[in-house]
Amino acid sequence: MTKKIYPDEYYKKKAIKLVVAHLRRKLIDAEHRDADFFEPWLTKMDILLEKDDFILAEYVDMRRELNNLIDSIYDIELRYKVRDSWSSYGKSLDKKAPVK
């Protein structure tokens, strides 16, 4: 039985989904008024992740938007928590399919 090898885009998208889920948990745990500030971005991200095609430029634009949101947060503690997700998001864009 052969194992199916998916393209790089599959792994990038899967990693981004994990980052977004983790970011959601951080924002829920924060229970801070600035946490609601991310809701429109999360909604746009869900729509993008539901698409079948993977266009890297769209995901890079979403990462820029996330960075702008993070920079506009006044709460420094929340900013640092969310900044880690921003870094993880960037790493997920570099994911590659495992070598056979």
How many separate helices?
A: 4
Determine the N-to-C terminus distance: 14 Å
Mean pLDDT across the residues is 87
Structural class: mainly alpha
Largest sheet: none
Proportion of β residues?
Answer: under 5%
Strand segment count: 0
Taking all Cα atoms into account, the compactness measure Rg is 15 Å
Can you tell me the overall shape? elongated
Helices and strands, in order, run as HHHH
- Unreliable residue runs: none
Quaternary organisation of the protein chains: single chain
* Helical proportion, percent range: 55-70%
Would you mind describing this structure in some detail?
This protein has four helices and no strands. With 100 residues, the chain is mainly alpha-helical.
Give the helices and strands, then pairings.
Layout: H1 8-30, H2 39-50, H3 56-71, H4 76-92
Quick recap of the structure?
The chain is an all-alpha fold and 100 residues long.
Q: Which short descriptors sum up this protein?
A:
elongated; mainly alpha; 100 residues
